[in-house]
## 1
Amino acid sequence: MAGSPPPPPPLPLSAKLTVLRGVGPTFAAALAENGIETVRDLLLNLPYRYVDRGSVLRIGELDRRPVPPDFEREIVTVMGVLKDLRQTTTRIQRMTLIEALLDDGTGPLRLIWFNQAYLARVLKPGDRILAFGPLSMGRHGLEMRGPAFEVVGRGTDAPEDLWVRRFLPLYRKMGPLTGRVRQRLVQEALDRAQPPEEWLPMDLARGLPGTLPALRLLHQPGDDSDPGELEARATPAHRRLASEELFAFALGVTLRRAGRLKRRGLVVPTSPELRERLKAFLPFHLTGAQRTAFKEIVEDLTSGRVMNRLLQGDVGSGKTLVAFLAMAMVAETGGQAALLVPTEVLARQHAATFERLLKEDAPRMQLLLGTMKAAEKRDALARIASGEARYVVGTHALFQESVAFSRLELVVVDEQHRFGVKQREALKAKGLDPHWLVMSATPIPRSLALALFGDLEQSVLDELPPGRQPIGTRLLEPDDAEIAWEAVERELEAGRQAFVVSPAIDPADETKVRLRDIQAMEALLQGRFPDTPIAVVHGRLKGDELESRMEAFVKGEARILLATTVIEVGVDVPNATVMVVDHAERFGLSQLHQLRGRVGRGRVRSRFLMISGSDTERLRALVETQDGFRIAQKDLELRGPGEFFGTRQSGIPQFQVADLVRDRQLLARCRESAEKVAQRGLGDALAAWLRQEQARLRLAEIS
Ligand code: ADP
Ligand code: MG
């Protein structure tokens, strides 16, 4: 027999997870679905909580004294093995109950979950779990209702050796990665990982632990660590990892901007005649802010560089008109300009606005929609290809293969496709490099916008058109909802229209029993307003059905629009003068402010009524101010950037450790460093690291 096998070679952090013992292709694929592909991905998924073993209580020693019904219950942590797992249905409310006994050797504790049938699939008898929840006395003795839990061991392979260290790290669930398995993988990864090269510039790295020691500190904290500090992500170890992410981000942004400034942009010729012509389009005087923004755009379009500008402005600040003027600059000097919007209803609406502005020149405008009939579409494409269509308005159909422009010089991206990076790349692949203007629907606090979108120039519309009346905003207790329905009734009687917004409710939501869903709201409205045509729209409708219902409301055939948040993206119905939002606590402040911007577009004073039985302190911000930037700042502080930006499609990086709000000073420092590094030149090795990090953070490639 040979001696012990040689130790496995050290692993680079970029190694695929299959190099770890016990990770086969199927397991790796399941992890990949959760975005965990490499050793680095695994290690950068940090614990969200650290349980102090000193604070785990023994079941036999729990306090069994009864607590009167309206007194707060203490939340306790226990750990044991699950027995007797079963699913039943309550007789009265037909709720699904999952019940189990948890045994830690000192006695069993009954655990109960309501309406979470999926737990029957997640939990198995024999699992060792850590449960946190409130204690109460039930018919069968002591019980814990609706506990949060973590599976720390499965089946017989649930030894006690988790307790060698004082702090047990808990992680967010990731597919098949349960606590115990994850800890074993993390352990192996930490033991075998090769210390990566130092990529942070000295000024950023000073005083911080290396990458690998930082990861070890966070996954396996020493017994004298402070779990509060770890959970707040405020340690030098966190700063090391956050700095790497932010530096990679900042460097990418810096290089992207530098690359763009080097490219030659089409110069749009200006002349006094052009200026006169644009003026003739204007139905009203521009606000000061609109004038400034337009001037900045003109400077870009005539500079010989490629414009990439973010136009920010509160809802109702008049971004469309600025976009139109920019497009007219190009279109009236022989080029083509395209406006990309997220939905067909919006595309039609913008097209109608453009037709009004263009008057007798309206035939220069062309709409392009995915759902057009074949003949109509063929005609549209021909007009775009020939250059006859100068103003093109459409949805993502604009960027399909079959669309050929004759002289595309400017693209304006409205609302949801917020930063349009992908579309831009697609065009570049076709050899097109037009000027680019993106309009953000959600105001982003200025300091953050500068840090985040450093590759964009920025204009801000910080002024509303004159004569806008503030929208009467109220917060109502559910018991006072009648006040809202009376307001709706008054507006309907005066010939106007109303929005009612219901939150989209996830069926797996455990609080669902207490929420009024959209069907219940529809029934309520039908009862309260029996002869009123109501259009109901929600996320599960097919595209054309959604469009036709929205259209009915825009045309005034439907008098009430009942919706989940889909209307958020911006229909303009000036005749709608009241909006009621049910369960307002389910929405972000910025979202509510956007919704509020849907009314108050006509001359009549409009009303915005929020119904909510909780969270009133937060919601009061909307009653107190109508300034979208201030609301955004508050929202960002309260919810954090992930929720605020709505992740994924927003074009905002998916940082693992960095937090754009908490770490904004660090981001500023990373930007300064990145500028210096970019000026000196990167070198191949740093460039390779950057590409890797950008892929991991799902950032747009440097180009
Ligand atoms: P948003 O910035 O939310 O996209 P819009 O472009 O839809 O705002 O403009 C909101 C409303 O204000 C529209 O009805 C538009 O016609 C009107 N508007 C825009 N600019 C002015 C202006 N300078 N004076 C008066 N009304 C304006
Ligand atoms: Mg708009």
## 2
Amino acid sequence: MCGIVGYIGKRDAVEVVLDSLKRLEYRGYDSAGIAVIADGKLKVIKTKGKIRDLENALKGFDVKANVAIGHTRWATHGKPTDVNAHPHVCGGIAVVHNGIIENYVELKNELVSKGYSFESQTDTEVIACLIRDCYKGSLFDAVQEASRRLVGSFAIAAICENEPDTIVGYKKESPLVLGVGDGEYILASDIPAILPYTNRIIPLEDGDCVFITSEGFDVFNNGEKAKRDILTVSWSPVLAEKTGYKHFMQKEIFEQPRAIADTIQGIYSFEENRFYLVSSGFEEKLKEINRIVAVACGTSYHACLVAKYWLEKYAEIPVEVDIASEFRYRDAVIDEKTLAVFVSQSGETADTLAALKLSKEKGALTLAVCNVMGSSIAREAHEVIYTHAGPEIGVASTKAFTTQMAVLYSLSLYMGSIRGNLEEKDVASRFAEFIKIPRLTEEALELDEELLSLAMKYLDKKDFLYLGRYVSYPIALEGALKLKEISYIHAEGYPAGEMKHGPIALIDKEMPVVVVAPVDRVYEKVKGNIEEVKARDGIVIAFTTSGNKELEGKCDHVFYLPEVGEELSPFVYVIPLQLFAYHVAERKGLDVDQPRNLAKAVTVE
Ligand code: M6R
């Protein structure tokens, strides 16, 4: 939800900030802007639209500066317009902001009574004016003082005409990372914006106020100087490039064999017959738990739904799966014998973070599964396991999903082993199957051309139904989510067995029904559901196991996927559903990587 950047250093600051904003555009893309201090004067260029519109607006704006801040917006307060775009300025101070100021109306009234006037409908303009009101010669002091009065979530970067060699940043409940380069510093909402300049980063903590000049930086928290460790991230900047693909989503779909392999590498040693997944102290605590709750949003929630089948099978512990925004407002029964698992690609999703904090308060043992190193959820949990997907830029989550499942499957085997349910030889044989997954997903990707043809045939349909049972049920949900979020076609995922309790009424000759039908323990049941759809003239698109020819006569389209152990089929069967959604959206000429109304990291409630 909005991306912010600040740069100070030897390079052309406008160029760096623009480049970094492009890498943050997945966070919001309805307007953008940049502020610099050049020749002692504050200059601001901002516009409704995407970064490319900002680039156009910057043409003929010949400014050389070494200090700049920038913003790409996902509107919360006030429509996407030129005036509402950030940076917002008040009396020589410019501010970019990610988050929501809950008490902005009250502050605005107070500032108006003091003579301040406002141009925009945003909450951010209040921050700029409040900092101006607190300013007595030090931007750093003014930002700290103003921040104490702000209620809500906010990551900000501010510059001031009177202090041309300074950027001040503040973080509270919205992400902010400082990149520490060689004589240059870059402040940003997320790591990919920083990667081309440095891989040395400091994820700032809540309450941190960072004071940056070209000479160095200091972090303060609550008025006290704070020591923050510099982390070295292993992501290569190339991972945040399209490298010849038309869209990031397409590239990320094709990266999955590599991403899954990277994620499972090193988790389990065949030679020693042991896991390297969590610390030994955490392992001891895990032995005490008698219940698991898994909490997440969107695609990450679907990964948790798949994991429930695995965890219950191997750990033999009851598992509850919840959507974070529901979990946090119900009276969940959680105690110190509960393991609460929080799954999040970004590690910044506001509802998931709040659910994590709540579970900690109730005494649960907490575990995060995150992709972004040093993110808020990763830091807040008692223990974190990272997925090694690399930066995921496309708003539609793909490689994050399969790598989350890879971690959760490993966790299930591990729990089975420490609880004595799985013997060493069982773990070894299951891992031997598991490590075939990268190759099997590669084979699934070979369906790409056929799925393009399928997409062209059905892209004008208005509704789709996705069906699956057992571990394929969450895959049906995920397939439907992919289609709706990038192609704007209404799609519903359903457990196939539930169809006759309602959705069957929707089926007619216009309705394509995508059926995830590997030959597994529920295959015969799913075959029955296919018959039910066909009996009502629905169009059936089935995905089944290679060699299973019996669906040919029953379905309109059958696609074959490599044979895979039944519990591991989600890794393979989600691939064609991602590809199908991608091709439908791409052929419809839609903005695949930045679908309307969405943002990659939902850092507001
Ligand atoms: O960063 P997170 O995994 O916490 O994000 C959760 C959801 O916002 C995310 O999975 C969303 O549903 C994706 N757009 C789905 O493709």
## 3
Amino acid sequence: MLGRLSSALARRSRTSQLRFGPPTASLSPSFSSVPQPLTPGPVSPSARPRGAFRPRPRLAAAASQSSRTYPSPLHRPIPGPMASTANKSNDPSSLSNISEIRVTHSDFELDVNLDKKVIEGYVKLDAVCEVDAPTRLLLDTRDLTIHAVEALPRGSGGQGGQQAAVDAAAAKAVPLPFRFEEPHKVLGSALVVDLPAPGGSSGSSPLGPLTRGSVLSIGVRFTTSPSSSAVQFLAPAQTHGGTHPYLFTQCQAIHARSLVPCQDSPGAKMSYTAVVRVPQPLTALMSAVPREQHPGEGAGLPHLSDVQPPYPTNVFSFVQKVPIPPYLLALAVGELAGVDVGPRTRVWSEPGMVAAGAHEFADTAKFLEAGEAIAGEYVWGRYDLLLLPPSFPYGGMENPCLTFVTPTLLAGDRSLTNVVAHEIAHSWTGNLVTNASWEHFWLNEGFTVFLERKILGRLHGAPTFGFHAAQGAVKLAAEVERLGADNPYTRLVPDLSGGVDPDDVFSSIPYEKGFYFLYYLQELVGGPAAFDPFLAAYISAHRHATLTSDQFRKFFEAYFKDVPASRSVDWDTWFFAPGMPPVTNSYDTSLAQQAYDLAMRWHTCDVMGIGSDGPPGASPADVSGWSSEQMVAFLDKLGQFRAPQPMHSRVTKKLAEMYGIYESNNAEIRFSFFKLAIPAEDDSALPAAAAMLRNQGRMKFLRPLYRALHRSRGGRALAEETFAAAGPSYHPIARKMVAADLGLPEPVVAAV
Ligand code: BES
Ligand code: ZN
């Protein structure tokens, strides 16, 4: 198996065509490059001392109202950010007030400026009052400059469409006072929009009387910062084609607020429409269905008339009809081409990679059909894939209608496409049925891993399900070992109160402990025959909604009330106890057993110090005909056996040589091997490990490899050098996380 992988892809990776070299131009860390507003008045929380401004509208329509005076922000005392989260929403990661007023639709106009690394934007937010007479709308923001806020009359706007409606609305727009609360280090700054009282001193409110159930529309003109944590701007040299810049966003978990003003809580589900202007010849894609342009309709950006790009542009238009949480907003801009690989699937990427992507992801339609058979109707219309440049920090991201994937999946043999099955599974668990807050993240990820494995099992048989489940258990044990069995972040339901950053808590725990729990529940109530209908019922009952772990418990208990065994679940231990789960699952290991047996032979040989030839009788034939997944299973199981102590470097060297590890183009195989070889102080692995850190930016690989290198004697300096050189090319989130892991400062990104 090893060394036989697709030669074209292997060649590409060996010749570093992915061009993940040092950037020729990159992000400015400071705010200074934010374009100066055309008129005074824009406000960004970090640039302005609190209370030191009077917002002045700069929207064309609002300007006619500008004689109006605004109350000073100091007229009303503003509680500190954490105090103010109490009772506003049950989401400790949002400063918005969704329990009082909730955004249900956003209509965006976005102008993407790749030179200045900013997005100029206007959003019309449609909201519904959850209580009588709400006094203010609180929106999450981080690193955004807000230029103006305006109240739009009822019924205004045509969901991004009709010019006439926009004009009519703009004519009657009324500027609203706004201010920021004190910035919170992790959560950002709540943008406070005071809602006019009906019939107050300024006459009747354009919003009309606000009672529970009333709807209102608010317009916000904003600009992102070049240091937005949601956006990575890539210089041409960081792309495959090398000639055009590129941009992509990553909003999960709490980065949407650095892209657009929004209620950045999973509970604030909204539909959206967008028009996006980009320089020619680039293409924009979003987590939505592209809309056909009709001449004269919806193609303009009427609220961004102050932004006039000095180059030719293209405008793209999108609609997302299904309400989505803001963390699923996504945008990518670049030189993009697409190839259809199924009736509702197109693989997009830079032109030079699209054929490889289309080959790798050819099974997507089958995954989708299997997902529908298990979980019900696919409601999103399209399922396209965007193959990103190598700095994409995740394996995949389930942006609706347009999953984002890392090019590290391009093994050539479709062996890593379980990631696509996973992202497809999110179409039901996560995107349709959503965790109420990031404390209940396992409801997204644990369920999605469960569904991913059910999809793979349906397509390839029960032993495949068992194989992946067993692999997951190895991963879970390794993660608990790494974090420590009493680490509170090994709880299935962690406590994120007090503004804990969900990125800091991210681990395999919600994935694998979540899966482990669901498998346990399945077996408890009678296996798949009983659990599969439950899964479908759970999805159908919670679609378009969010839920907490406790709501899941209640649903499960009610559904299985006639199954006595269901009463034996120790919910509190499962949810709140740290460490390994309270029960031990057993899986069908028929496919994994060979790999585990081989791992045991190498483990024994290493422990016994038998020598440099590997286990008695070992030969390349041990792994001939193996899938790359079996190879990974072997290496990871060996890692589990050797967890207490590193291996001997002569044994890792022998293993690499015997099984052709360095010839493999499979990123997972290399990664699993490096996790053994680096702690073993196997110097021959260091150049290849460092190359992996330089030519891709997926955190799953970066973080463990950097940590291992930095802990090792022979790799410490290499880790620091490599991070200093490659760090500026990483995605902002990856850069931050690696710096935190290593206790190093973030490498400075050169100014544009
Ligand atoms: N939604 C996640 C990625 C994510 C999680 C982004 C948290 C930001 C914050 C995605 O579905 C995912 O889990 N991707 C995995 C795939 C794997 C589990 C098959 C990945 O990136 O490796
Ligand atoms: Zn996921």
## 4
Amino acid sequence: MKILQNVSLKPFTTFQLGGRAEYFAAVSTKDELTDAVRFSRQAGIPYMVLGGGSNLLVSDDGYQGLIIRNQIKGVSRYEKGAHIFLGVGAGESWDDLVAYTVKQNLHGIENLSGIPGSVGATPIQNVGAYGQEVQNTISWVEVFNPATMEFELLTNRQCEFRYRDSVFKSGSGKGLIVTEVGFKLAKEGVPNISYRDLKQHFNEQDIRPTLQSVRDAVLVIRAGKFPDLNQHGCGGSFFKNPIISRNQLRRLQDVYPDIPHYSQAHETYKVPLAWVLEHAVPWKGVRRKHVGVSAQQPLILVHYGGGNARDMKRLADDIAHSVRSELNILITPEICFVGNF
Ligand code: EPU
């Protein structure tokens, strides 16, 4: 493992934004990961682990410390009853894994097709799309615990999965580094096409869905909504969908009777922010030179090239501020911020 210095982080993030890392190490084995953490301890500098870089906005000033790029690969497989268990290295590409499971006729993550990033990032934010969340197939997560310098296994329950959230994002799990994710996939099943866009797609086509046709459908739907990462930068949904109280929903419905909402635990409701940004606090399609709000899906902020992270952050702050002042709804970013803003 080489420790490099002064490395631009732009090419390692799908936003294609941000400054340089003071130190940078790509690790492909657990030993290398341990060595990298040890290096940062000895040098007295902080470190941060980077996966596929698809959920990060790196400051223009970069990162003072060591960026560890997790490239631990490998897939192990075993069969038990009606299931196949896959232990997948955190540095594997998520979408390559989905494609593999679809080819192998294994059910459970097909709706999560086309999502950029690495396998190790998926439990952290409990990646979800088109009616599936990874929490439904994750059996275990192997982590490196820097406090003990040991590897540990967490069960699904210990991961404390919630909407776009897990133990790894806060509290006791915050410093843990994901090294392998164990998936429990079913050998048989019926694809879930209940999500609105999928239902529409299959009704129009009137065919019986297979794992492959669900994957293809998701890829088509996503292509219509997400910028092509070869052309523009983006980091998926910039914000989480807000979860509001019944009273808040009632007040909104007085003004916007058609506002979509999905019932959650404890009499709360999830509201699609994309709807809000199209109909209530219009930001859809707004462009500020090098950055803007997608005209296809306003939850996605786009870097059109030549921009900087500060402009992107300012755009996000302005959106959050206007949603708060006009609707009294607090929205929180899904994107992680790296460095000083
Ligand atoms: N909508 C509009 N206008 C638009 C787009 C959407 O009004 O331009 C409304 C529609 O009512 C639509 C609803 O918003 O039914 C939801 O839109 P969509 O299905 O595109 O999903 P989303 O809630 O905006 C979430 C995830 C995405 C995931 C999609 C599909 C979050 C933060 N985002 O977006 O995940 O791909 O559902 O399941 O939960 C990500 O996390 O990075 C991400 C892309």
